[in-house]
Write a structure and sequence with these properties.
Elements: H1 4-16, H2 39-59, H3 64-75, H4 79-90, H5 98-109, H6 113-125, H7 138-152, H8 159-168, H9 176-195, H10 208-226, H11 233-249
Helix pairs in contact: 1-2, 1-4, 3-5, 5-6, 6-7, 6-8, 7-8, 7-9, 8-9, 9-10, 10-11
């Protein structure tokens, strides 16, 4: 375990690693490489050696179940450096950083999505590149991998985290099936909110259960528009029926209009 002085030194070097450049939000110019002839660059180089040692150990471990806790443990050695890098990012400075990007990926794997999104926001803001072993952009990776976990283990990812991902990758270019998967995950998360809706809750939204169901339907339809093989057609049919029933139960149509006026206004 490193000393408090060592951890502070890593954070300071991480802060300085970005250099004086300023990169604006969603710039099309990628952040520069870290200068290796500076103390910060030398610190980065040493941490990269440790990172690659960790990656080799992970590569030699066949079990995914065993690898993910290892990643969570390895990540501790890089946390102070990363905090320095994030602090530099808040000041408008950034550089390409394999350590931070790899830790973003690891955080998804060991299911710390708040941390993954915190790192992901920096990665996307400064257009950091993914390591060569990944064949997707950072935006595509975040959208698709977090959506995959949400669809397979929905209790691990909150609706709010999925919506944060959607906002973060808005406008990013990626294959339509990747976007569709994210909308599918969001739609199903909204559907679960509708199914567990408690009208007596203090934070119950206006529109009640139908508000969640309507949001679910919109995202599922968007998923289908992007990829007709995404697997949401049954969800859409069931939600259409549910919304119609909700409309019948409260005396309004599925679109929220009153039945008495459903035929239109009088001439």
């Amino acid at each position: 375990m490193s000393s408090p002085f060592r951890r502070h030194k890593q954070m300071v070097h991480g802060l300085k690693s970005a250099g004086p450049n300023h990169v604006s939000h969603r710039t099309i110019v990628a952040a520069p490489e870290i200068e290796t002839d500076t103390p910060s660059g030398q610190e980065y180089a040493g941490l990269r050696v440790l990172l690659h040692d960790n990656l080799r150990t992970l590569s030699d471990t066949a079990s995914i179940e065993a690898r993910n806790p290892m990643k969570a443990d390895y990540a501790k050695a890089f946390s102070d450096w990363i905090e320095g890098v994030l602090a530099a990012g808040e000041e408008g400075r950034a550089a390409q950083d394999e350590i931070l990007v790899t830790n973003m990926v690891w955080a998804i794997d060991y299911r710390d999505f708040d941390y993954a999104l915190r790192l992901g926001a920096h990665v996307l803001k400064y257009d950091l590149v993914m390591p060569e072993r990944y064949k997707r952009t950072a935006a595509c990776f975040l959208a698709e991998d977090i959506a995959t976990v949400a669809l397979e283990q929905h209790e691990k990812v909150t609706l709010e985290q999925l919506l944060q991902v959607l906002a973060m990758v808005d406008g990013a270019d990626m294959p339509d099936p990747a976007k569709a998967k994210l909308h599918k995950a969001i739609g199903r998360a909204y559907r679960r909110r509708a199914e567990t809706f408690d009208a007596s809750a203090d934070n119950a939204p206006a529109g009640g259960k139908s508000a969640f169901a309507t949001e679910a339907l919109e995202h599922l339809k968007r998923a289908l528009a992007l990829d007709d093989k995404v697997g949401v057609k049954t969800d859409i049919k069931e939600l259409d029926r549910q919304l119609k029933k909700l409309g019948d139960d409260d005396g309004s149509g599925a679109d929220g209009t009153d039945d008495a006026n459903a035929g239109g206004t009088e001439d």
